Prior knowledge:
alpha/beta
Amino acid sequence: MKVIAINGSPRKNWNTDTLLQEALDGAKSVGAQTEVIHLYDLNFKGCISCFACKRKNSKHAGHCAMKDDLTSVLDKILESDVLLLGSPIYFGNITGLMRSFLERLLFSNLSYNEGHPSIFQGKLSSGFIYTMNVPEEFIQKVNYEALFEQNKNLLQRLKGTSEFMISTDTYQFEDYSKYEASMFDEKHKSQVKAEQFPIDRQKAFDMGVRLASL
């Protein structure tokens, strides 16, 4: 069982990355081989609509034709069993690099033929971890669930099960006193970090176990 985690956050060893590492630890606990890749370490672009993957008898069917730092990463993913994704929510959506990554991964496996939503030949299960600074009640207010479900449905085109988890009201700064952020109560943020984030870490661990055990 091969499990690859994609960190779509620019920050290492912080909320998103920490939860991804927990998920990988869960996968390791049931014998999986694991690897984490940080998108912000790579130099790549999103889909450029070259349509090489859609040409008849194309050697690029199911594989993005672009050559850059993401090429070898996509090859690894297409040969793995589980894909773990993590992104903070910025301006109501996943990070730009995570979006570009998903374009490159999914469009080349999306079929334009009727009755065939995907040309992917394997089975790749996935789990998406979303982190955000806003409290949980804000999710329904701005309908973030629609975004999460949309990504879940897209990832299911890789013919595996897909799930997601959410970590809200996250702790953003090491020292809140150094930032212009008076709308946030540092004491409350510290309490959430101490009480809720360990629960979220366990949920991420359990996700890794569950997906790596399929």
